[in-house]
Amino acid sequence: xxxxxxxxxxxxxxxxxxxxxxxxxxxxxxxxxxxxxxxxxxxxxxxxxxxxxxxxxxxxxxxxxxxxxxxxxxxxxxxxxxxxxxxxxxxxxxxxxxxxxxx
Amino acid sequence: xxxxxxxxxxxxxxxxxxxxxxxxxxxxxxxxxxxxxxxxxxxxxxxxxxxxxxxxxxxxxxxxxxxxxxxxxxxxxxxxxxxxxxxxxxxxxxxxxxxxxxxxxxxxxxxxxxxxxxxxxxxxxxxxxxxxxxxxxxxxxxxxxxxxxxxxxxxxxxxxxxxxxxxxxxxxxxxxxxxxxxxxxxxxxxxxxxxxxxxxxxxxxxxxxxxxxxxxxxxxxxx
Amino acid sequence: xxxxxxxxxxxxxxxxxxxxxxxxxxxxxxxxxxxxxxxxxxxxxxxxxxxxxxxxxxxxxxxxxxxxxxxxxxxxxxxxxxxxxxxxxxxxxxxxxxxxxxxxxxxxxxxxxxxxxxxxxxxxxxxxxxxxxxxxxxxxxxxxxxxxxxxxxxxxxxxxxxxxxxxxxxxxxxxxxxxxxxxxxxxxxxxxxxxxxxxxxxxxxxxxxxxxxxxxxxxxxxxxxxxxxxxxxxxxxxxxxxxxxxxxxxxxxxxxxxxxxxxxxxxxxxxxxxxxxxxxxxxxxxxxxxxxxxxxxxxxxxxxxxxxxxxxxxxxxxxxxxxxxxxxxxxxxxxxxxxxxxxxxxxxxxxxxxxxxxxxxxxxxxxxxxxxxxxxxxxxxxxxxxxxxxxxxxxxxxxxxxxxxxxxxxxxxxxxxxxxxxxxxxxxxxxxxxxxxxxxxxxxxxxxxxxxxxxxxxxxxxxxxxxxxxxxxxxxxxxxxxxxxxxxxxxxxxxxxxxxxxxxxxxxxxxxxxxxxxxxxxxxxxxxxxxxxxxxxxxxxxxxxxxxxxx
Lengths: 103, 223, 551
Ligand SMILES: [Cu+2]
Prior knowledge:
The complex is a heterotrimer of chains A (103), B (223) and C (551). With 103 residues, chain A is mainly α. Chain A contains three helices and no strands. Chain A folds into two domains: 64 residues; 39 residues. Chain A is 66% helix and 0% strand. Chain B has seven helices and no strands. The longest helix of chain B has 37 residues. Chain B is elongated. The N terminus of chain B is likely disordered. Chain C is mainly α and 551 residues long. Chain C contains 18 helices and two strands. The interface between A and B is large, with 49 and 50 residues.
């Protein structure tokens, strides 16, 4: 198969694995510090980097067709729509004169 | 059996060749994973809404989580992802024994994860942290214990669905081990190993987000 | 043409390739699976229609005299659940999508034939759970399963029904997955995206919705079941849970689900209108792209079902605006179909009659949808018969009408037989008259303030209700007639020939009924979609229109 040449080697896999372990250690350590609002931001950023490593190298998305990449992006896009438009209700309920269901 | 004969046996009638068949299966698997993103996504949306509304309860609930067990499980899953990716690699090279060893290691690590998760669930059970009529929660802080119950509801729903996916994955690994032992996988035909690999990594990926959201982000928050 | 059709009868085809129940239940042939779906959903359609009949009988008189209020709740719930999850959602994609998509793209089968068969079994298992709930006392939550009624208060068998909906959802997901992969990976040589029939574009867009939306419904149902079984509290206001969160997650799927029902119908209309006007669909690119636009925009409007439920005013305004936008691509389609008719050589075969019915009825259904998108009007008519009339104009006037168009258009291809045209035309007329008589009065009733989901009503609403019930009985006759004459045609119908309508499209280039692998040789496509000018040109495949062969 011609596509073999582009596939990652065992070396890449081990490197990604080590990176994932290091990032896990970092995120656990950061969780013990009180950074205020930065805690969730740092934790989720690290999680996203880890997720990208798994997606791109272990799941070989990096070597996949453009179509697959578009599909995954579309899923994330629609997930963000679900979250964003739902929050457009929850975060603006306090603005109106309606009686707030949560207070 | 000569290679070309194996190839004809594995090729379904409606595909032009094995390459076409494999690329099609891979694309189908990715579409399935897209549905999985949306499936877990619905639960993540619920989590986010309530975290914004009941921040104090979320901090209180999250601070009772055993970070150590969560971290151990994260490491276990990352290792299982490595062994999974290696079994795909060896299956492509046609190395049956190495494939079997890696698949077996993946299965063992998967079971370890489930074991640790069971220990955690047991702890929650003992502390009456399982949602329902017997739910009881008393820790310091300014929050409504009812709202902590919602935290635990989502915790159990999300980790439970994740664990269910792990159990299905373990079943798939056993199926692969049997097929591998029968010599069904060759350098030309190893699509099932690759498909299960994609699934397994996806389940790992969900945990990569569950771990910080449930265990980490409110850990050091005070008051 | 005649000689070809006679020889094709002797040819082995997908129907006579193998015999016996086993050969059907274990088939991986997409055409046979399509037939399995056709039989299953027909049964569910009759069952759902039976519930509808009881509803209309109860509403004949103002007093609640035929059934108890509780029973009535169960009747409209089971009517909704059966019709939506077991008929409308799979109707066109699982029957005609299954049957036609591989043929239209020039493939031997769908990409994953075994998954396709599995998806039928999954559907039947899910249907089994829903039937179990129906038999063991019924379900009374409404098809929407709103919390906290469904999770806390209802005494009916919610969990079994919810599980059934959850399971049929996976059938839908697998069908969608199969169609997407097939359209991407299995097209015949030369069949570029812009040469695809609009039926394929519509089914592709539908499948995208199935794949992206259905999982969210699935996880929502899991949460409802957990709440009902273990009192989790996620949607229970007593614990601070928000019932509106259920509605958000539910409608994130269930509004786009309306497009799962109507988009494939639009694909059918495009095929039929081109054939019976002998013209390429006007503005092919716009019609194709409007399907994709509907799929995408359809995900942005769900909270228009929740204006009065307590969402924030600001969110209501955003969703209202977005809902107006989603009307645009639907309107693009209607205008383009109408423009296709212009200067076409129109003939009035049965499928075309249904097409005309569709365009009129769907336009009314769609435009009243725009009324409902406006917050001010919606506040006035929410939960009245105006809403009931609106979605029946879309679902019955749209989807069921297109389903019947498809059935009459492709029946000769599926069975190789022709149905009696005079009967089919009469039944099309009955459906149109009966439908309008049933549902138009409901617009008036709703506007006058009659609420939905009550088994009794004030006496001043009786005249319109009697009209509606009378219409429903005409509609029932109109629906029963095709079942009879189509079954009759299997035995006694004339041989249809391979292409009785002289239609474009790859599915007409193979014999009727088609052979198991669809084409003796994989076709190579060198022409554009709907090349009716070439087909009808002197020296082309035919100079005449399809009338004399069909008659
Ligand atoms: Cu809607």
